[in-house]
């Protein structure tokens, strides 16, 4: 039996696979991906243990459009809620589903447990530490806007959360990219992701650096931010806003980055991490970026189906 593919971390993808998914997402967004239905006859489970608008809809609509049937589970629906283990849950679901798209409350260990079988693909629809499908959609957005990922320079402003970790792992795999992480003190991207990215950056001639202030901003092509209340996490101190408020993306910050477009993984909180003038302004591509989650989700699902008899991808 062919083992099923899992996407739990960006690090699970080879360079070729990463590039294939990003480019394929761009083809879907251009409407040039063709009309094949590689998930025909498949059943996809969609398990969201945390709230979701974009990712859940992108994967649900994507799976349906690619020909699959869907089963959706809310946070209290499975026997997980009454104490059944994630290992037992994964073993049972894998006998019935082809793909499980799951957003978990905690770290990736839960997703790895679901993936500890050979019959069902598992897709990380966001964990507490990494949001790989967001990074794939973000790179597809960059390809659509700039025509390439290579050489694109990104200023990421805000908490070093799941979105930031995935973006760090993904961008560092493209030649000439620069990722300037400017995160509040104490809220940076975890060192293990920076270490992984540093290895990729050396190999691919990319650059990743993290600082905790907004001085000496380099020339960039993209300014990216994220909300201040990351799903499932609570801040260790009650005065965290004083650390975050200098990191609001406002018109002054955008003026310091001439020519840059604005990206946001959403949901947005106008007046917190970004002003309305920036999010709703002419330089914002945040809502195109949100739509690209749907296009990218189809690319991810198609990649999972590659080895199925109905699949056509060879990577
Ligand atoms: N685009 C998304 O998936 N948005 C959902 C929340 C993202 C944010 N990084 C969070 O963890 O709250």
Concise summary:
This protein has 315 residues and is an alpha/beta fold. The chain has helices spanning 15-30, 54-65, 86-93, 109-114, 132-146, 162-171, 191-204, 240-244, 251-255, 276-279, 286-304, and strands at residues 43-48, 69-73, 99-103, 121-124, 153-157, 178-182, 207-211, 222-225, 261-264.
Question: Which short descriptors sum up this protein?
Answer:
315 residues, Ornithine carbamoyltransferase, single chain, Asp/Orn_carbamoylTrfase_sf, Asp/Orn_carbamoyltranf_P-bd, transferase, alpha/beta, globular, 9 strands, 5-stranded parallel β-sheet, Orn/put_carbamltrans, binds citrulline
Q: Topology, pairings included?
A:
Layout: H1 15-30, E1 43-48, H2 54-65, E2 69-73, H3 86-93, E3 99-103, H4 109-114, E4 121-124, H5 132-146, E5 153-157, H6 162-171, E6 178-182, H7 191-204, E7 207-211, E8 222-225, H8 240-244, H9 251-255, E9 261-264, H10 276-279, H11 286-304
Parallel strand pairs: 1-2, 1-3, 3-4, 5-6, 5-8, 6-7, 8-9
Helix pairs in contact: 1-5, 1-11, 2-11, 5-6, 5-11, 6-7
């Amino acid at each position: 039996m062919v083992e099923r593919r899992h996407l739990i971390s960006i690090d699970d993808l080879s360079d070729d696979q990463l590039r294939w998914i990003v480019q394929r997402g761009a083809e879907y967004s251009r409407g040039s991906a063709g009309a094949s239905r590689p998930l025909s006859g498949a059943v996809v489970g969609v398990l969201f243990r945390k709230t979701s608008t974009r990712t859940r809809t992108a994967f649900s609509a994507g799976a349906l459009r690619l020909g699959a049937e869907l089963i959706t589970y809310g946070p209290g629906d499975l026997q997980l809620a009454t104490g059944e283990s994630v290992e037992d849950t994964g073993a049972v679901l894998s006998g019935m589903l082809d793909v499980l798209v799951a957003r978990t409350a905690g770290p990736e260990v839960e997703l790895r447990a679901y993936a500890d079988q050979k019959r069902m693909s598992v897709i990380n629809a966001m964990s507490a530490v990494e949001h790989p499908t967001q990074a794939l959609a973000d790179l597809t957005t960059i390809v659509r806007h700039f025509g390439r990922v290579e050489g694109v320079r990104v200023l990421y402003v805000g908490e070093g959360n799941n979105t930031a970790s995935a973006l760090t792992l993904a961008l560092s795999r493209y030649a000439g990219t620069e990722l300037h992480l400017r995160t509040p003190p104490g809220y940076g991207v975890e060192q293990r992701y920076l270490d992984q990215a540093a290895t990729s950056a050396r190999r691919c001639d990319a650059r990743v650096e993290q600082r905790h202030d907004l001085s000496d901003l380099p020339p960039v092509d993209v300014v990216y931010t994220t909300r201040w209340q990351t799903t499932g996490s609570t801040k260790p101190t009650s005065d965290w806003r004083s650390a975050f408020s200098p990191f609001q993306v406002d018109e002054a910050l955008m003026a310091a980055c001439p020519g840059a477009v604005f990206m946001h993984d959403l949901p947005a909180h106008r007046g917190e991490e970004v002003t309305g003038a920036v999010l709703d302004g002419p330089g914002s591509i945040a809502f195109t970026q949100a739509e690209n989650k749907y296009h990218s989700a189809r690319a991810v699902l198609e990649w999972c189906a590659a080895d199925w008899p109905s699949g056509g991808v060879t990577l």
